[in-house]
């Protein structure tokens, strides 16, 4: 017969194994994560194109004065030890959460695992309850030609399509301390919308400390758009610092920033154009869409290179004719 302690442990394990409802609304593709052994810089390879990670971009463009002052105060050796412990605890916590979301049995009896497990349980109890279904866990995302990264969860949270990031923290966070968390989640939302034609409406950051203090930070609407704008500025700054990367980029981040500020493109046309570009719309339906001259103009102006790269056979199927020079 189980005693009270064993029963509590059993109930906690059941909670960790219980899965969320999975939706196949989005068919996610994966890239390859690469870490430079010399610098520790993280990149992603998507279809042969090497892209900097969101965390690399933010780290490269971050004001390091506070971090430097903290290291000098506690000592560099102790600072490195705290950093490594936090990283291992965070990785363990993420593994418990990923296993719960996917309904896979998992346990970690190491000292780090025993500390991370109740943190994950707290996030499950406090943070995951409003989620009715999820689209992907540990999802690799990329904005073609610009950047990439991995988000912890894409889901329907209180009826809104949402990007969720889990964070461990050694102490409770003040909102003014987590600017980069907001920027990171905005970058993931923008990449998801750009590649999958979605409309991510919300970002949620779920934070838990080792003493099980839970915090939740949400961002949506105009505020989310503002954080996207701030990320694009950081992205442009990154490319200024890494000039040769900018030369190789297929998309000029400064141009993207200008387009974002002007906000002149129709969201409906853009979402449809992305699906056409990615070959997700049947040819006969593409032909019907191209009958709309405004959409055709949008597609030609935004994706002229893609049109020129399409096979003649596909162009015939969708009813698109390349312009020809008139012979005088």
Key descriptive features of the protein:
single chain; 328 residues; alpha+beta; Lambda Exonuclease, Chain A; 2 domains; five-stranded mixed sheet; three-stranded antiparallel sheet; 14 helices; 52% helix; 18% strand; globular
In short:
The protein has 328 residues and is an alpha+beta fold. 52% of the residues lie in helices and 18% in strands. The chain folds into two domains: 15-239, Lambda Exonuclease, Chain A, CATH 3.90.320; 265-328, no CATH class.
Widest beta sheet: strand line-up:
4-5-6-7-8
> SSE order, as H and E?
HEEEHHHHEEEHEEHHHHHHHH
* Oligomeric state as shown: single chain
Output mean pLDDT.
82
Give me the number of helical elements. Answer: 14
The percent range for strand residues is: 15-25%
Helix content: 40-55%
The number of distinct β-strands equals 8
- Overall spatial form: globular
CATH topology of the largest domain: Lambda Exonuclease, Chain A
Distance between the ends: 96 Å
What does the model show?
28% of the residues are buried. The protein is globular. The chain is built from 14 helices and 8 strands. The chain has 2 domains: 15-239, Lambda Exonuclease, Chain A (Alpha-Beta Complex), CATH 3.90.320; 265-328, no CATH class. It is α+β, with helices and mostly antiparallel strands and 328 residues long. A 5-stranded mixed sheet has the order 4-5-6-7-8, with helices on both faces. It has a 3-stranded antiparallel sheet with strand order 1-2-3.
Secondary-structure map with pairings?
Elements: H1 4-17, E1 32-35, E2 42-46, E3 49-52, H2 54-60, H3 65-74, H4 76-102, H5 111-127, E4 131-143, E5 147-157, E6 160-168, H6 179-196, E7 202-208, E8 214-220, H7 221-241, H8 243-248, H9 253-262, H10 267-277, H11 283-290, H12 293-302, H13 304-309, H14 312-317
Parallel strand pairs: 6-7
Antiparallel strand pairs: 1-2, 2-3, 4-5, 5-6, 7-8
Helix pairs in contact: 3-4, 4-5, 6-7, 7-9
